[in-house]
Design a protein that fits this description.
The complex is a heterodimer of chains A (490) and B (95).
Chain A lengths: L8 H9 L5 H13 L7 E4 L1 H16 L10 E5 L26 H8 L3 E6 L38 H8 L5 E6 L5 H7 L2 E4 L19 E6 L2 H11 L29 E5 L9 H16 L3 E5 L7 H16 L18 H12 L2 H14 L4 H25 L2 E5 L14 H5 L6 H5 L4 E8 L5 E8 L4 H15 L10
Chain B lengths: L4 H10 L6 H18 L34 H5 L5 E2 L2 E2 L7
Antiparallel strand pairs in B: 1-2
The chains are: A alpha/beta (490), B mainly alpha (95).
Chain lengths: 490, 95
């Protein structure tokens, strides 16, 4: 039944419902595939018994004629989500051994829909990174390699394990989280789809906090339709998250349509930046042609504060992180360093030993920009620039219905190739502005570059208009005909 | 603005992260590099701009003033590195 792992979630769901195969067969096939792909280091914990239990319930529910929307579908869950009784460590040593006594709202929603869990997925520590190299579990290997090369490539980050799992067919779909591109850049690097919804669509309750004004959960999967199916199950109002949107969940899947007649696609001139490979700009031009073919009209737009988005992000995100990560004090959960002395010595040693270098760097920046005397110059200034960036998008959406850009300024790079923190931050140059504005945004595979690596196209929608993003994504997916798969070497 | 080794030591203390001198010295140029880069925000005219506080306009909800949770001490203490007599236990703070 190994062909089951090449099916989309829609195909698995429909085949399960019509009795072509059982949920048990799906779960067993995936459990075996997960166990056979340890080389990739995509999973930090495997939970085959969880997938089987959900499958059994799904098979019984089908017998009774009432399976849930995701009955029979086993999923991979990013390690940032709290899962009851299963290690939830955010890729950090400081949470080693943490087994939550509660379940995140998003994973609870997925379980309610009938989904099972294959395991927890590796990620950059506390979602801080763009290559999965900051994980305490070590980097994830992308299933993709450059043509004629054995160099290990990163699947991107921070949802690197999530991306690798879908690309390697060891999960039909996964959860990711996106603070400044952590769903979209890895999706682009491995040739899959991933959507970050409008801020507030998915509850943050039970998701380990990084930068609370930016963090959003979202799905990653093989197709646009699969993303719509998963997002419908994940989203929804949650009174336990104060910024959760009290709105009904749209029927994104039922309303999918690649007919873009009368729609205007904004092409922001500020996204033509120096140093981006010609192949990426060529794919962008191709994407414009595809959307025109679907009936849309391209319009040039201006987002004048684009170049300030990354520096704004690297004030706001570390500031919020330094506050959020103050909770790791060795008292309530996670590790505690064994050290002589008093309480302050214990705090200092626990945090010194528990956090990795990138997390410490960001806590230090965040602490500095929030400290007395510097708060206005850095943090308040950044929040003002953020308001201008938000206004740029408001103006742009007067002239267009969706925005098209490349997802990332490069294809996947090799593990260890990017060592300068600033160079690493530039990975998210196209992804971060939509995050700062809280807008829905998606990456869809567009093609391969000259090295044989996937490149993604990026769609940004207006507030709450995930449908437009998904529909434009579908139009690209139908025309790109992206069927390339990594050659199995693991 | 750039940070001195003394300032970095102070920030590490505020952040409660113990650091060796070697680590502090390594961080000084790294932080200055990042801070030098974010300084380009100074070029942006933000006169009369209100700092953004909510990225999607919404009112902060108030919930009913009712008990909805509780009586779960065991669950709360389950992951504590050290718990005694139903409390979190910490190193001695008073001699």
């Amino acid at each position: 039944m190994s062909e089951l792992t090449s099916k989309t979630i829609a195909e698995l769901r429909d085949g399960f419902r019509s009795g072509d195969f059982t949920a048990r067969e799906i779960a067993e096939t995936y459990n075996a595939a997960v166990a056979a792909a340890k080389t990739l280091n995509a999973y930090t914990v495997e939970t085959p018994e969880d997938a089987l239990a959900a499958a059994q319930a799904a098979d019984e529910a089908r017998g009774n004629g009432d399976p849930g929307a995701l009955a029979g579908i086993p999923l991979g869950i990013k390690d940032l989500f709290a899962t009851r009784g299963v290690d939830s460590t955010a890729g950090s040593n400081i949470l080693k051994g943490f087994k939550p006594t509660y379940e995140s709202t998003v994973t609870a929603n997925l379980r309610k829909a009938g989904a099972g869990m294959l395991g927890k997925l590796n990620m950059d520590e506390f979602a801080m990174g763009s290559s999965n190299e900051t994980s305490a579990y070590g980097p994830v290997l992308s299933p993709w390699r450059r043509k004629g090369s054995n160099v290990g490539l990163t699947p991107g980050g921070s949802s690197g394990g999530s991306a690798a799992a879908v690309a390697a067919d060891i999960a039909p779909g996964v959860t990711g989280t996106d603070t400044g591109g952590s769903i979209r850049q890895p999706a682009a690097f491995v040739g899959i789809c991933g959507i970050k919804p409008t801020y507030g669509r998915c509850s943050r309750w039970g998701v380990v906090a990084f930068a609370s004004s930016l963090d959003q959960a979202g799905p990653m999967a093989k197709t646009v339709r699969d993303c719509a199916i998963l997002l419908e199950a994940m989203a929804g109002f949650d009174p336990k998250d104060s910024t959760s949107l009290d709105l009904p969940v749209p029927q994104w899947e039922a309303n999918l349509s690649s007919n873009l007649n009368g729609k205007r696609v904004g092409i922001p001139k500020e996204y033509r930046i120096d140093g981006v490979p010609a192949e990426i700009n060529a794919l962008w031009d191709q994407g414009i042609e595809w959307l025109k073919d679907a009936g849309a009209t391209p319009v040039e737009i201006s987002l004048p504060h684009t170049k300030y988005a990354l520096p704004t992000y690297y004030i706001i995100a570390p500031a919020e992180a330094s506050s959020n990560l103050a909770r790791y004090d060795g008292v309530r959960y996670g590790m505690r360093a064994a050290v002589e002395g008093g309480l302050d010595d214990m705090y200092g040693a626990t945090r010194a030993g528990g956090f990795g270098a990138e997390v410490k760097r960001r806590i230090m920046i965040g602490t500095y920009v929030l400290s007395a005397g510097f708060y206005d110059a850095y943090f308040t200034k950044a929040q003002k620039v953020r308001a201008l960036i938000k206004q740029d998008f408001r103006n742009a959406f007067q002239q267009c219905d969706v925005i098209l850009t490349p997802t990332a300024p490069s294809a996947a790079f090799g593990i260890g190739e990017t060592t300068d923190p600033l160079a690493m931050y530039l990975n998210d140059v196209f992804a971060v502005p939509a995050s700062l504005a809280g807008l829905p945004a998606m990456s869809v595979p567009g093609g391969l570059d000259g090295q044989g690596l996937p490149l993604g196209l990026h769609l940004i929608g207006n507030e709450l208009d995930e449908q437009m993003v998904l529909n434009a994504g579908l139009a690209i997916e139908e025309r790109a005909g992206f069927t390339a798969r990594p050659e199995k070497w693991w | 603005m750039s940070v001195s080794p003394e300032q970095v030591r102070h920030i590490a203390k505020l952040a409660r992260i113990a650091m060796s001198n070697a680590e502090l010295e390594r961080l000084v140029p790294e932080l200055n590099n990042i801070l030098g880069w974010v300084e380009q925000l100074a070029e942006v005219d933000t006169g009369g701009v209100e700092p953004l506080t909510a990225v999607i306009d919404q009112k902060l909800r108030l919930r009913a003033d009712a008990i909805t949770d509780g009586d779960c001490r065991e669950a709360i203490l389950a992951n504590a590195p050290d718990a005694e007599h139903g409390f979190f236990a910490v190193p001695k703070v008073i001699e």
